[in-house]
């Protein structure tokens, strides 16, 4: 395939690792140009597509809080991230979650991973690595490296929030332990459960 070669919308989508719906949207927005055949079919120039491949990628700002009582902090994270993007003249898209830091099934996070793996994200910007995941963030950073996503951390003071969410995450882990320990009652398990509950009480 030469760079001046014309390809179909399906081939263009495969070349840029996006859906045909995205190709149509980019054409409507003027990001890419299509040539119409005599039969009315779209054809795209390979060199133009390759030239727009990087510029068409997204800058994603991701923010997360542990519960609905911290919505002010969620907006604060988003403001910090969007200000950073504005200072660098980047258009950004916000993805946010309200959920625990050990939950890899938060809907926004799942959407983010899908975008990264489809090579649609140029930059991922966070206020702190823990905003992504408290356990398992390194795996997502590895995916970013594999699929060409740059990760940027915009540090912000959030010590109080981190301490609060650590307590919530510990309680979530404790709940899992409790359900398993109750299923296998003996004196050793009972003592372990009591110790864990005492730690949770002190953290709270």
Descriptive report:
By secondary structure, this protein is of the alpha/beta class. The protein folds into three domains: 6-50, Multidrug-efflux Transporter Regulator, Chain: A, Domain 2, CATH 1.10.1660; 58-159, 3-Layer(aba) Sandwich (Rossmann fold), CATH 3.40.50; 163-203. Helices cover 52% and strands 16% of the residues. It has a four-stranded parallel β-sheet, with helices on both faces. Helix 4 links the parallel strand 4 and strand 5. Helix 1 packs across helix 2 (20-28) and helix 8 (159-182) runs antiparallel to helix 9 (187-203).
Question: Which keywords apply here?
Answer:
3 domains; three-stranded antiparallel beta sheet; Multidrug-efflux Transporter Regulator, Chain: A, Domain 2; 9 helices; 204 residues; four-stranded parallel beta sheet
CATH topology of the largest domain: Rossmann fold
Average residue pLDDT = 79
In CATH, what is the homologous superfamily of the largest domain?
Answer: Resolvase, N-terminal catalytic domain
Low-confidence stretches: none
- State the shape: elongated
Fraction of residues in helix: 40-55%
Query: What is the architecture of the largest domain at the second tier of CATH?
Result: 3-Layer(aba) Sandwich
Judged by helices, strands and strand pairing, the structural class is alpha/beta
What value does the Rg take, in angstroms?
23 Å
Largest sheet: 4 strands, parallel
Number of helices: 9
Distance between the termini: 63 Å
Number of strands: 7
Query: What share of the residues does DSSP label as strand, in percent?
Result: 15-25%
Reading off the top of the CATH hierarchy, the class of the largest domain is best stated as: Alpha Beta
- The side-by-side strand order for the widest beta sheet comes to 5-4-6-7
